[in-house]
Inverse folding.
């Protein structure tokens, strides 16, 4: 009897203990310690510490936060947007940027291996035609030099952490990064000025015109052997020009926002500017690989136009046939001998100095 | 070790070469033998000299359309470099500490603000780049340019670039790099066309006096 009673009593007691433990466990689940501090329910928990940090982080009591420092964002103690920006930079911009640049470089190398240098069908004739003035070439090379410097220093700053620190070490990289940052900031405005000069000088000749679409449909002559028609600039060159101008302007404006914090822009605007700056720069650098390749190793006779200002008439006929026709019609062709004299490869004589092209060269 | 060498013996060596070289060059120019001008003077040599010193700051009217770029770029570069050299805050401090301190007393002047420094350096870089590119790309300029012209341009560019890379003044390595490039520049200076920084006024004066004496308006 007593045993039965004891057994029943023991069972009841055990049930009570289990119930009590479940209760504790349930209460624990509901306790403020286990409630996510970032959730909306957190604000309902009357914990002064939580409220303080939520307020600091999200600035929920905007207007009530004051600071002795009277400047932009001086009342923001924690900028939650910065976490997103940092994550974007570290995990997406760097990784995807590196991937895109590598893929473009590999594609160009493969293209060169399979297609080789695009040579002129009829070869160089030696008869030249004037294409770019000194001023235009100076503009081009100034923009090119400054761009290469900015691209180099910018890529050091962007990819330095994952790529250079393991090779160079922290100490050397810190010196390199400091120099790159100063150089990058200083040459940025020169890029902007060069870009504007480039915009004004070449814009008229780079407006899309009838016939450009044909060029695009034929792949610009890169695919297949069929002839493509083009004016002074073909559609590929025009597209490259507009990529330079548009991404260049995006890079320049966002760069000025980053480098000149005196104009009252806050951190969020600067973070967005950095995102624009980085993405536009990756686009411009990757497309520039193609431009540099095609202008140097890729196509026969192209580099000459920016070196001397003159191109072979056969080159003009193959790549810019409509412009070449204009040159023929206006009798602007120069013999190989006269061209050599203009370039100072032979002693100048009276006939050459009297040439109207000499004036143009000056 | 290298830092001590750049800050110590090499600095004094380059400064000595620069100073002696400049003095030697100027002495040979001023006291060099020239044929006496026996012609009857038709005008004042002195007024001709003074006039030419200033008139040459402006490009010749007939030449202006052909050399507009060189004139604009030339002024941008030279004025920018002058401002950087004598009014950049680190340079003012350096000159005060190393050249204008005498027994506890020192002489200095107000440096330009940071924004002015940035503008001056932008002007200097833009001007120098344009001038050098013109030298390389224009067939006539290319033909009359020598290795000395290119070395002088590149050396000047390197000095300016290393100076700007060290702008943060946080790394001694960058300061040393700038100082080393300056020392190379100082050594090269007296033996090159960089000497025009010292000779352009005497040269103009000499030409102007010669013209003035003969009554040539120039």
């Amino acid at each position: 009897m007593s045993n039965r009673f004891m057994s029943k009593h023991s069972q009841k007691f055990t049930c009570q203990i289990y119930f009590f433990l479940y209760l504790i466990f349930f209460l624990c689940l509901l306790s403020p310690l286990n409630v996510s501090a970032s959730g909306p329910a957190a604000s309902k928990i009357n914990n002064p510490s939580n409220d303080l940090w939520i307020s600091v982080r999200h600035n929920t009591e905007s207007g009530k936060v004051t600071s002795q420092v009277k400047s932009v964002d001086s009342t923001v103690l924690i900028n939650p947007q910065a976490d997103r920006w940092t994550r974007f930079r570290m995990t997406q911009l760097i990784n995807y940027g590196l991937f895109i640049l590598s893929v473009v470089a590999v594609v160009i190398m493969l293209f060169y291996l399979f297609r080789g240098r695009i040579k002129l069908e009829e070869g160089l004739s030696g008869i030249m035609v004037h294409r770019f003035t000194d001023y235009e070439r100076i503009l081009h090379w100034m923009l090119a030099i400054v761009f290469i410097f900015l691209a180099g220093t910018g890529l050091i700053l962007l990819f330095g952490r994952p790529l250079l620190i393991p090779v160079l070490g922290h100490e050397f990289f810190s010196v390199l990064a400091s120099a790159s940052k100063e150089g990058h900031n200083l040459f940025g405005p020169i890029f902007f000025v060069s870009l504007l000069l480039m915009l004004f000088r070449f814009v008229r000749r780079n407006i899309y015109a009838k016939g450009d679409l044909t060029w695009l449909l034929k792949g610009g002559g890169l695919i297949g052997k069929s002839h493509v028609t083009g004016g002074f600039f073909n559609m590929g060159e025009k597209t490259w020009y507009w990529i330079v101008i548009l991404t260049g302007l995006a890079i320049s404006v966002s760069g000025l926002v980053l480098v000149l914090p005196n104009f009252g822009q806050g951190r969020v605007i600067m973070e967005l500017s950095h995102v624009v700056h980085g993405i536009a720069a990756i686009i411009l650098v990757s497309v520039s690989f193609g431009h540099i390749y095609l202008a140097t190793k890729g196509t026969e006779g192209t580099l000459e136009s920016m070196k001397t200002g003159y191109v072979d008439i056969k080159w003009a006929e193959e790549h810019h046939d409509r412009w070449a026709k204009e040159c023929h019609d206006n009798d602007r062709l120069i013999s190989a001998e006269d061209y050599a004299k203009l370039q100072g490869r032979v002693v100048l004589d009276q006939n050459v100095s009297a040439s109207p092209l000499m004036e143009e060269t000056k | 070790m290298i830092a001590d060498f750049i800050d110590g013996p090499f600095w004094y060596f380059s400064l000595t070469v620069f100073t002696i070289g400049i003095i030697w060059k100027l002495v040979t120019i001023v006291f060099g033998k020239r044929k006496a001008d026996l012609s009857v003077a038709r005008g004042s040599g002195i007024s001709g000299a003074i006039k030419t010193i200033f008139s040459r700051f402006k490009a010749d009217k007939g030449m202006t359309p052909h050399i507009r770029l060189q004139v604009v770029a030339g002024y941008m570069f030279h004025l920018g470099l002058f401002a950087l050299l004598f009014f950049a805050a680190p340079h003012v401090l350096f000159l005060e500490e190393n050249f204008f301190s005498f027994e506890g007393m020192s002489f200095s002047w107000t440096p330009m603000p940071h924004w002015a420094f940035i503008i001056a350096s932008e002007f200097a870089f833009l001007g120098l780049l344009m001038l050098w590119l013109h030298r390389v790309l224009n067939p006539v300029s290319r033909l009359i340019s020598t290795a000395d012209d290119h070395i002088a341009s590149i050396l000047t560019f390197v000095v300016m670039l290393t100076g700007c890379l060290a702008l943060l003044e946080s790394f001694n390595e960058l300061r040393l790099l700038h100082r080393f490039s300056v020392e190379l520049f100082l050594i090269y200076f007296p033996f090159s066309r960089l000497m025009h920084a010292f000779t352009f006024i005497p040269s103009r004066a000499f030409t102007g006096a010669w013209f003035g004496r003969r009554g040539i308006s120039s």
About this structure: Residues 35 and 41 of chain A are 8 Å apart (CA to CA). The mean pLDDT of chain A is 83.
